[in-house]
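Q&A log
Question type: sequence-to-structure
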Amino acid sequence: MDRALDLAQEAAGRGEVPVGAVVLGPDGEVLAETANAREAEHDPTAHAEVRALRAAGAALGGSHLDGCTLVVTLEPCTMCAGAIQLARVERVVIGAWEPRTGACGSLRDVLRDPRANHRVEVVSGVRAQAATGLLEEFFARRR
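Response status: OK
Response body:
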């Protein structure tokens, strides 16, 4: 989570919403580390999670990330949760909850829906205060 927080801080410095993500392989090695890049890439889907999943898939040479862990500073939205599920990520570690758009347990729970063909373990609240602080500071400066 420390690395994801560093990436989020760097994103904030570029004017991006401060969200960072790291994908760890089954053996704990870092496969991908990214941050939000919606503004830089002019792409509404350039969320940290989606970018990290794409990079991890490229590193592994496939679209399934079996046994992998995604560490992200903010609870993923519905789009990202869907991508996480389709990638068959084993575990998601979340910093801060996102009560307005979160899809991993706060507003919705896409990842643990019993109707889905793949369910993902969700670990939340890891360095939550630091992740929340980055977001609050970022949005306070923008107001």
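Response note: The longest strand covers residues 30-35.
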